[in-house]
Amino acid sequence: MNVETKPPRQKEGRKAREARILLAAEKVFAEAGFGGATMQLIADMADLPKASLHYYFPTKESLYRQVVEKIFHIWLRAADVFDSASGPAEGIAAYIDAKMELSRAYPAGSKVWASEVLHGAPVIQDYLETTLADWTEGRMKVIQAWIDEGRMTPVNPRHLLYMLWATTQHYADFSHQIETLNGGTPLSEADWAEAKRSVKQIILTGIGLEPPQP
Amino acid sequence: MNVETKPPRQKEGRKAREARILLAAEKVFAEAGFGGATMQLIADMADLPKASLHYYFPTKESLYRQVVEKIFHIWLRAADVFDSASGPAEGIAAYIDAKMELSRAYPAGSKVWASEVLHGAPVIQDYLETTLADWTEGRMKVIQAWIDEGRMTPVNPRHLLYMLWATTQHYADFSHQIETLNGGTPLSEADWAEAKRSVKQIILTGIGLEPPQP
DNA sequence: CCACAACCTGACCAATCGGTCAAGAAAAAT
DNA sequence: ATTTTTCTTGACCGATTGGTCAGGTTGTGG
């Protein structure tokens, strides 16, 4: 009778199952896009009957939304390294490393996000206007402060941020093209290291900073 | 009877109509993706009955393929400025300008291309392996030659190219996000000029070259 | 043991999709 | 003028889709 009591049940099993569905959905949405993905495909990849999907996620759109939101929050959290830095060189280098690692670890999620924005952000428009806009403004001020203190070359902070986003996400979003140009094989550990080094070298040098020595 | 005779007919009308369909399809595919686009939507935007679409383009996929191929060739042609340059500074600056102008002039086409690659290039995989691979290898050699001649800082030519692609296409592919962060309004003429200037400044400085003075 | 709630799913449905086709209209060729 | 070819489209079709639901199973508290 007590409404406060939380019956543990197999809550564990539930969360795990939801996570498995979200993971399968992330892959399918990344490969086929929202319109091309089908609940049946996601169900097959999660090894569940289709009706079970609708038990945990009432509609295709609600499932999609949760996939996108999950990625968005991973993205935001990675951006924390920007703040905990002591200066522009360390901050931007750490941000590049973090975002490159995300591109490597969550290629499907990155593609879902890119696809969503590409098609006009019909589902997460509110996030762009609130959370992302706030975050962007904050980092622009940090960069501008660094410039004002003479710690880096004066550049437009907004376009510097765009360049950081574009370049790092490119390795996830266009991974298929990159792999094809790499002879059809995925990037090796050394390839990724070289990619990160190259990106940091050009961008940091580009804003008057010393790239970290390997 | 003569097979050689080319009846002019309203050939003009036919090509024009095909072009109108391709333009409508480009927009719809860009907004909804291949899976989300419907022949009915494209027909409505082209102001034609759906059955007429199937007269000019037998299947949805053939229409999509032509849209993608059209963009690809525009992209390749823009890359010519790379060759006609006398040196790295002019060549790369001209390439950045050209690709930024393409992002501005053909945002829908760029999005279709990005969406195609994003989802594993199911339709234009052969182009990636042949034409694009050849083009990339050629430009890498040009850049390497500039480096060997001491005309620019040694950087990995492959990752420099990726950065050029990523940054310039970002302004088309993520235009919705950029507009949202721009207060919900499209970039002005001045905004585009500032974007091009910023990109050239950071990248050219990043590889040891002098950015062009405005 | 029972009752109740949460969980699960095979079978089903209305809606929508890409694509077809017959029948005609318009234009060219004869 | 008449045949032939090209063009046009309303009506239609099988297949697939997202979503529903009744009925069953499982687990839990009393």
Structural topology:
Two copies of one chain form a homodimer.
Chain A: H1 11-36, H2 39-46, H3 50-56, H4 60-78, H5 88-105, H6 107-118, H7 125-148, H8 157-173, H9 175-181, H10 189-206
Helix pairs in contact in A: 1-2, 1-4, 1-6, 4-6, 5-8, 5-10, 6-8
The structure holds a DNA duplex (30 and 30 nucleotides).
**Count of spatially separate domains of chain A:** 2
CATH homologous superfamily descriptor of the largest domain in chain A? Tetracycline Repressor, domain 2
Percent in helix of chain A: over 70%
- Beta strand % of chain A: under 5%
Please describe the biggest sheet of chain A, giving its number of strands, its sense, and whether it closes into a barrel: none
DSSP helical segment count of chain A:
10
Largest interface: A-B, 57 and 57 residues
Structural class estimated from helices and strands of chain A: mainly alpha
Oligomeric organization of the protein chains: homodimer
Q: What's the shape of chain A?
A: globular
CATH structural fold name of the largest domain in chain A: Tetracycline Repressor, domain 2
Head-to-tail CA distance between termini of chain A = 63 Å
Q: How confident overall, as mean pLDDT of chain A? A: 93
